[in-house]
Input
Amino acid sequence: FTTADAAFENFFRETKMRAWTCHGRNQRDLVSKLRQAGIVKTPAVQRVLEQVDRANYVPANSYMDAPQAIGAGQTISAPHMHAHVLEEIYPALEGKQNVKLLDVGCGSGYLTAALGRWVHSDQQCSDDNNQDDNHNNILGVTSGKVFGIDVHQQLVDLTRRNMQQQDGDLLRDGIVKIALRDGWKGWPEEAPFDAIHVGAAADSVPYQLVQQLKVDGVMIIPIGLQSEAQTLYKIHRIHKTNDDEGKFHPEDFEMTTLLGVRYVPLVHTDTN
Output
């Protein structure tokens, strides 16, 4: 990997005091607080966070800016972390065609649903403006699919149930697919992906997973042992070396430090 740590220290100092304090009375108020804190910056991120109600994905303390337990020893990330992730992914997706996104560790389904809303056509916008549905999703992409995976069947089932409350159209329309899979191995049958989000901390770079990125695709992933400091990284695929053996080539990727984090571990197991 090549690394790019520019502005990390300034970014961390500016945001660490504002994160964890953006509690809201409801979803719109929560997003407003995140925007005022400078964590939500782009209209596309603001819109999707407003559309997907966190209360459908975590019943207690839904609008508190803190992680919450969701079962199976797992947590849903704090709202400010979801906002950070979406802001980092957005530039890699804006205006692209036929995007494919992978959410590793879908948990209770919130970020999976948000990614689905990003690529699904906005029917209200279409009705109001008499335009083609395919051009009225939040990102401006012509089409897209989202794949959510988790190693816990309990959470795969929870994601599906939660999405049925107000986001069931994403499942019915085939925009979002959910499956029980090993996060370290990803979903190679559906690769390559324009963006991959990993919602649990890997103890090292997951080489099999990162190779499922398209060229110019990005992965947002926390890395670090549970006993040590963890860091959220953005891995950008800048090249694909021709290799019939499928070996990992670190020069194909650029790794950028984003911020210090604390996540549950990305489980090593076989589910397929």
The mean pLDDT is 88.
